[in-house]
Amino acid sequence: MSTANATEVDATKAQPDTTSIDSSSPAIEAATAEETAAATEEEAAADSNEAEEEPYKLTIKAPNGVLVPVMASAQETVQDLKLVVGETPGTMEYSCFYLALNKRRLNDFAELSEIEGLCLDSELDLVEDQYTEREARVHVSRLRDLLGNMATANPMVAGLDAGVSVFSTVKQDAQETHAFKDFELGQPASLDVLSAGKAIRQLAQPLCVRLLVLSGWNPVPRNRQLKGDLLYLLVTTLENQSYHVTAGSSGFYVNASSTSRFNAENYGVAHAGQAGVREAAYYSAHSLVTLLRRLSPKFGKGLAEIQKAMAERDPAETLPFPLAEQAATPWVVRGAENSVPAAYDVGAPQDAFLRQGALVADSLRDWNEELQSIREMPRETLGDRVLRDRQLHKWHAEFVEAAIPGAMAVVGGELVPLNPTDPVDQHMFLRDNIFYSKGFDGRETFAALGGDAAAHVATGKDITGVRLLNQLDTQGLHTLGSVVVDYCGVRVVAQSVVPGVFRRQEATPIVYGSVDQGVTVGADAEFHRLLEPVAKALHFGEHEVANAAGEASKLYTSADVKGLTGTDGRKYVLDLYRMTPVDIEFLESECAADGRFPAYPHKVVLLRPELVDTFWEQSTRKAVMDHVAERVKGDKGAEEVAEEDLLKGFDFSLSFSPDAFTPMQAKTAGDEALAGAVRGASRFLRDVSVPALARDLAAYVSTPLSGAALTATMHQRGINMRWLGRIAELLPADAPSVGNIRRRVVFEMVARAAKHILRRLFRAAPSHQHADVFALVANCLVGSRYCAAPAQHLARGVPELAAMTPASLAQEVRAQVALRFRFDLAEDFVAALVPGHELMLLREVCVKVGAQLALRQYHFERPSEAAVHAAVVAAMDPSVKVTKTVKRAIKDRVDAVLAQPVAVFADDVMNFVAVTKVATHKSSFADEAFEAGRLALEKGDRALGLEMLLESLALHEQTFGFLHAESARCYSVVSLAHYDAGEYALAAEYMTKAVVISERTVGLDDPLTIHNYLNLALYEHARGNSLLALRLMRHAMDLWALVNSPDHPDLATAYNNIAVMLQSLRLYEESLRFFRACLDVRVAVLGTEHVLVAGAQHSLAKVYAVTGDFKAAVQVERDAHMYFSSKFGDDDPRTKETGEWLAELTFNAVRTAKLSKAAKEKIREVASTASLMPMEQREEPVASKGHLPIDDLIKFITGGSSSSSKPRPSGGPRGKGPKGSRR
């Protein structure tokens, strides 16, 4: 399956039914062929002895009497149990402790299976431990975090309002009336659906202390350090009492100091005998939380409220992110709240000291040594692999989180370069043992390939190469930790430091590959041996390259890939941007001006690894088929050739040269064959893969919902983004049925072009004017109907901005699209495509450049005064009494909105966040278990499938943690397995977790989140919670309108499901609207002659019959019957069913035309009275009249017996149970 940000809502191919819901299973694609899947199952079975171990059900007893039940696997460590204690509300006060079994201290890093005497149901004791200075800092820092707002992640790394979930507020908004009462089909998108203000306010903690900071008496005097003092704190309680507190090795106590006099003695001892002073033990406790409870009753009350709120909420909503890098960054955020600090906090500047300590500069992490040591950990057993994967993921996440602030400091000019005398583009930086360089061609390495443009692309390709080698995980071969950071127009590469790289050496340390563009080439035998399995996995053949003297050397990888031996003795490979062959057909045809388009900006045009794999597999399969066909044609005949003999004599190999069609390629016969394979793959991409994707997009076999989903779809098929223009050309511009996907493709090109324009403008403007730059580009791109000359309101001192107009920007976008995507945008593309889809395009641009806008109602054309007045009144508190003062305030607000000169202001740009490319680590065993479980479900083995999926879920959580997109994916698939089994409560429980985790890790409006909301709505409806299901559907539809447009084909499924939910509430008239919308979408996308259209017509006819409109029912049913009859013949069951319904409807259309007015009114009464009944009453016989066959329905309406002699339709409105039908 694709990564989470690329998951998309599938189009439903099943025939809709008025009593069943089309349910789209998650878009999970097999990552391997059947042979690989079989091998996966075998490997999973081989580890079954460990996977089937019974879990530990332990109990941890705390000193305060709280018992913490913990269920853990044998591979988990004692440290994992300690984390559970810290996250449990009743034991959150403990941070410095150890666990003991029978009074024996347990090693924090010991696996449970290795602990002697530990039983499956043992009770462990929580024993308070001695504090160190670090433990004291952690304790205070955790308490400050607990008392603060933990709803969002670190804004320095993840941006404003990062990692928020709004699910709880969506669920709370479920009313007694259904959520679609005021819904208008095709209504404009509203940003209110992304409002996280209410959710953040609900997560806000009650005030417990006024002040909790480090005291001015720090640092601790040396003589007091000998007595165990670690830190001094100043605490002011809500009762306005100030206390000086000592953090010592045995715990915390109130000392006798004041702001003017230092006295480290216990307050009870220093003031013994004075009135109101208690004994010394009262003023000391092991935990600061316990001490503050004694000193401040209001603190105890507030903390109890926090504990209660934590216990009541789903942990997925309140759990803080261990690393901010995992949190999703929204593109719209709270405006007013983020414009000022949340509160005046004297302790906020001290947080860095509390987390890192005073000696942080002397304790820099050796990132590279940590990474290589983790890679060298054992991997023989499941426990070894899980521990190793967890440590690798943790290291990568921490490295990215540390690299982002450093890269931002590089862009901001805050770091001193290592080589200050060199040109700016060549500057290198070192911070926290992370090496930084800019993505420019400062040393002219890529001068012949495109200069800065080639260098920019090469940095991203290097991350792809690192990812490939990390996935292969070859022992003895090492890569660096790497991350690419794009921030405010500058690309920065952050890497761990190779040991010895900064030492002066007489000879070059590069022993494999070339460091000087082929002048010299190294071919170290040891590196050659280590790279052989890599070459085999990547389908590289051994090839020759020649140096400047004409001497040939044999390599497996490209000569641009460098191998060196570090001073630690490890073998490192660097500069991995050429780990795939060149796209020679594109290079020859597009990298030179051809008259229609200018030359492509660079020559680093490489094939994607997915394309190489696909071409290799298809070529091998074709060779096998040709060989088998040749064998069958032999003298023996097909019957006489044994199956095992068919592949006898089969000899086929296909390898590629990464140096093919480069200046260093040797001209031997073997290398010519490798080059021929490269050309074949390039032609396969151009002539097969790209047209196949265009056909699938046109037929809506693939239906990407967002730009990220489209990108992932292309990458999964091995298609580079430079082929977007060709795909757009293959989608006919004048075909309404492909209008949605063609608009998505064009918008992706426009957004990427705008990103390149913004990158150039950001570099030309000072940082304090970046908000003006973005606002101006946004206004010219999507706000030209509101203001035709936005530059006069936004350009402040930048000549290039002052000259920008909507027309000039559109011309530059067209030029960028032609240059980078080889596509001619129409001159009026803004007027033709953007109106009505402004937010969709603005979202794509914001996501690509990392901009965060204030959440407000943006107007992209001048609104009327009446519309603004209505919006202002609607936003008011309904309880406010309308007085003259209120009316005047309303008028002032309306006048202010109407007077706004532009659509997007510079002040609307709240922040820019770093956009990263990372070599994401994946857990191989967790993915294998996931695939094995999925395949078992497909084969019908639910027990094995569910067991493997739950095992995969446990492995994902152990590896990545609870808050991770991979965990959300597992929860989603496990919930689907329970839904298929009819276990709707369990399905809803798992899907709820998937919804919350996806909101927090991939985004509130990510396609995965929308998909999960739609599925959760189905599960809640199956449980009988139709009102809640409709509220969830409404939220998903509002998100959909923001991300895509009303003509997306998957909306037919959503409309059908909404109609069925409304029908279950007997709201037949309202359900009609959505059944008609479902039919309209299907006709627009598929045309009138399609089986899904006929199915929708048949469903709509049934609902017309329920509402008594038999004339309309006959017209629609006739079209369905004609299609089934002409397409499948008169003997097809669908033809017979629609024929019987058509006859019955025709007969009753005549009969109901003769009914009295009172009888017709009774038809409407059936529906309207049923809609007012509570859920329990809807199960009574009267509630099911809408589902009766036609004869019985007429009998119920007229109060008499049915005289129809025609047979009752055998198909009828068949009830398929609450589960419904799934495609």
UniProtKB/TrEMBL annotation:
Q: Where is the composition biased (Low complexity)?
A: 29-39, 1199-1211
PROSITE patterns the UniProt entry points to? CLU
- InterPro entries named among the record's database cross-references: CLU-central, CLU_dom, CLU_N, CLU_prot, GSKIP_dom_sf, TPR-like_helical_dom_sf
- Where in the sequence does UniProt note compositional bias of the Polar residues kind? 15-26
Which intervals carry biased composition (Acidic residues)? 40-53
Q: Would the keyword Membrane be found if you checked this record's keyword annotation?
A: no
SUPFAM superfamilies named in the record? Hypothetical protein c14orf129, hspc210, TPR-like
The region called Disordered is annotated at 1-55, 1196-1223
- Leader sequence residues: none
Q: Supply the name of the protein.
A: Intracellular distribution of mitochondria
Which is an annotated Pfam family here?
TPR_10
Encoding gene per record: CLU1
GO cellular component terms, alphabetically, are: cytoplasm
Sorted UniProt keywords: Cytoplasm
Clu domain boundaries: 345-587
Tell me if Cytoplasm is a UniProt keyword of this record: yes
Q: What's an example Gene Ontology biological process for this entry?
A: intracellular distribution of mitochondria
Q: Which GO terms describe its molecular function?
A: mRNA binding
